[in-house]
Design a protein that fits this description.
Layout (H helix, E strand, L loop, with lengths): L4 H9 E3 L7 E4 L3 E4 L1 H13 L9 E5 L9 H17 L2 E3 L6 H8 L6 E4 L13 E4 L2 H8 L4 E4 L2 E8 L8 H12 L7 E6 L1 H5 L2 H10 L7 E4 L3 H9 L19 E6 L6 E3 L7 E3 L10 E5 H4 L2 H11 L9 E5 L3 H9 L2 H7 L2 E3 L19 E4 L15 E4 L2 H10 L5 H8 L19 E2 L29 E7 L6 H4 L4 H4 L5 H4 L11 H8 L2 E5 L11 H8 L2 E6 L4 H9 L3 E4 L2 H6 L5 E4 L3 H7 L3 E6 L3 E6 L4 H9 L2 H10 L2
Helix pairs in contact: 2-3, 2-5, 6-8, 11-12, 11-13, 11-14, 24-25
The structure holds FE3-S4 cluster (F3S).
Length: about 650
């Protein structure tokens, strides 16, 4: 039987397991990437593992999420990251050089290679045939030390694209259509492989918009086959020699097939406050807009900003709103400036920003209270923009620019008729020619030892798993709790990301402000949640901080993939409960795991009995591989890896 492309790349990198869907496999990692909010902990953990040098073919550290320097803490973090990259042999991308996924795509992403990144949108270069997976920082540190990365073998689903996109529809509409059909949970345990004539018709930047936002489906990764378009893109980036032809076998067997006819796609929009709340733009037309943002790792490329720039040229954005364009990389920004597009946008009333994630995680350009913000980003979770009562819509650059001109949500096809606009299409430059001044290559490193300012703390360590877990249900939460709920990424909180003692004061503060204080007073306890607990970013702080506060177990109806791995990595027991148990258990209830926990985890026991308020009992399940059980028993991945290193 033939293989899918995912299976081919995994087979080439397999060190453990046998590609049976649902079973754990270990794979070799060729490249790792880190961003600034997760990177400090990666390097502190790398240091704690007593490793000398990055062992992967390539490691790259980016400074992109928090580039505005409000006080010394963030600058200290960036200096630490530069020193760590220099000390351990990684490339370093300075603040302002752009978003990790954009810069990585431009400079390092390579077909057929594996990439592990401490950011949930790491799958972006799947658009040029790289198998890229997001993971927690500790997994990155171990992979960078030469260890395998372990993941559940995903099911491979074929997304067959037919036809071609009509004018005014875009790659963003393809992934929004996927979200509309499959929802934010539809990709869990899956890789989506895009094939068919529609896939062939898309440029690499369009493909990476789709693979980037596959993360919102909960997918392990998303992938396109490589072809002349991939080769052409790499050649235009000056890296044509890195092209490799990669296709699935003709008789490859997929777990499922989804068919999308591109010619039937109309402009779509995700309404507040979930990326799968998708409707045609025309259904929400007329809604007044106060802010429009074009940028992010999804739609911040040269090819994304250019259509918006063409649309606003010789026009004026509506007086009551602000339109901000933050190119995803300095390469994109420089090229747009050289070609005169930046001046055209400025003349139209656009506020052109530096290349940063910033507003995507509520750092800068926070919307006004109770207003509508239209963004070309990938997430619109409530409060992520930096204000609780936000109304964030997600759309393509074309829809965003149309709204900026009209002052309200409008189907760009209607506005085109009204203003006589031509459909801007997607255009690649003859040659990508941004400078490389902000990339410090490993061989040109300027540091050879770590520089730790006062904001750089220690990596917290957990004791080995004990036999008893009992305590109060300190918080009962709903479905789809995100890592933004657990540890918000706004600048006032994020500045403590390298200092867990301080950061943990903000744990779950967006759900309950008293939580951290109550957890500290209790000294231990459990959390209860509904479906899809921990969706969103890869930030391991969302497991590290609860661990620091004494949380020993999370009882949820289901868990998001990366967060579940992070819970194991930090010694917190993730137990699955059914709907009935979830409904019955209340905040404040005392929960006791009846079994000898350490013994049960070690022995491979799946069913655990929980006793609530010494009154009623229910079953909770531990779905964990042998390796994950060893991690839990040791109190987390760091203690286990250290033990293994010491024991030879
Ligand atoms: Fe940055 Fe937002 Fe992407 S935080 S990496 S632009 S999802």
């Amino acid at each position: 039987m033939g293989q899918t492309l995912t299976e081919k790349i995994l087979s080439d990198h397999l060190v453990e397991g046998d590609l049976t869907p649902g079973e754990e496999i270990g794979i070799e990692i060729d490249q790792v990437l880190m961003q600034d909010t997760t990177g400090t902990m990666v390097w502190l953990q790398f240091e704690a593992l007593d490793l000398d040098e990055a062992q992967t073919e390539l490691a790259a550290q980016y400074c992109d999420h928090q580039t505005y320097q409000f006080d010394f803490k963030n600058t200290d973090d960036h200096r630490f990251l530069r020193s760590a990259a220099g000390t351990y042999g990684a490339h370093f991308s300075r603040p302002g050089n752009g978003i990790c996924h954009n810069v990585h795509k431009e400079n390092f992403a390579a077909p057929g290679k594996t990439l592990l990144g401490s950011d949930s949108h790491t799958p972006t270069p799947g658009g040029l045939g790289q198998l890229a997976i997001g993971a927690g920082g500790l997994d990155i540190a171990v992979a960078m030390g030469g260890g395998a990365y372990y993941v559940e073998m995903p099911e491979v689903v074929n997304v067959r694209l037919e036809g071609e996109l009509p004018e005014w529809s875009s790659a963003k509409d393809v992934i929004l259509e996927m979200l509309r059909r499959e929802t934010v949970k539809g990709g869990v345990g899956k890789v989506f492989e895009y094939t068919g004539p529609g896939a062939e018709s898309l440029t690499v930047p369009e493909r990476t918009t789709i693979t980037n936002m596959g993360t919102e489906l909960g997918a392990t990764s998303s992938l396109f086959e490589t072809d002349e378009k991939t080769k052409d893109y790499l050649e235009r980036q000056g890296r044509g020699d890195e092209y490799v032809e990669l296709t699935a076998d003709d008789d490859a067997e997929y777990a499922d097939e989804i068919v999308i006819d591109l010619s039937e796609l109309e402009p779509l929009i995700a309404c507040p406050s979930m990326p799968d709340n998708v409707v045609p733009v025309r259904e929400v037309a007329g809604e007044k807009v106060e802010q429009v943002l074009v940028g992010s790792c999804t739609n911040g490329g040269y090819e994304d900003v250019l259509p918006a720039a063409k649309m606003v040229k010789d026009q004026e954005v509506a007086k009551h709103l602000e339109m901000i364009v933050a190119p995803g990389s300095k390469q994109a920004g420089e090229m747009l400036a050289r070609e005169g597009w930046t001046a055209e946008m400025m003349a139209a009333g656009v506020n052109v920003s530096e290349a940063t994630c910033g507003p995507c995680i509520g750092i800068g350009h926070v919307p006004a209270s109770d207003s509508v913000s239209l963004r070309t980003f990938n997430r619109n979770f409530e409060g992520r923009s930096g204000i609780e009562d936000d109304n964030v819509y997600l759309c393509s650059p074309q829809v965003a620019a149309a709204a900026a001109l009209k002052g309200e949500i409008v189907d760009p096809r209607d506005l085109a008729d009204e203003l006589g606009l031509d459909a801007p299409g997607v255009e690649l430059p003859d040659k990508y020619d941004g400078s490389k001044t902000d990339l410090i290559y490993a061989e040109d490193a300027i540091d050879d030892e770590l520089i730790k300012g006062p904001n750089i703390g220690e990596v917290p360590l957990q004791d080995p798993l004990g036999s008893d877990i009992s305590g109060e249900t300190l918080l009962k939460m709903e479905d789809n709790i995100t890592t933004d709920h657990i540890i918000p990424a706004t600048s006032d909180i994020l500045k403590f990301r390298s200092n867990i003692e301080r950061l943990s004061d903000f744990t779950l503060s967006r759900v309950d402000e008293t939580f951290a204080q109550r957890a500290k007073e209790a000294g231990s306890g459990v959390l209860v949640a509904g479906e899809n607990y921990g969706q969103g970013s890869s930030r391991e702080h969302a497991a590290m901080c609860p661990m620091y506060l004494g949380i020993e177990a999370v009882l949820a109806q289901s868990f998001a993939r990366i967060h579940k791995a992070n819970l194991f990595n930090f010694g917190i027991v993730p137990l699955a409960i059914d709907e009935e148990t979830y409904a019955k258990i209340e905040q404040g209830d005392d929960v006791e795991i009846v079994d000898d926990v350490a013994e049960a985890v070690e022995s491979g026991q799946e069913e655990f009995t929980i006793r609530v308020n010494d009154d009623w009992e229910a079953t909770a399940n531990l779905h964990a591989s042998e390796r994950e059980r060893r991690i839990l028993t040791a109190g987390g991945k760091l203690p286990l890896t250290k033990q293994q290193a010491e024991g030879g």
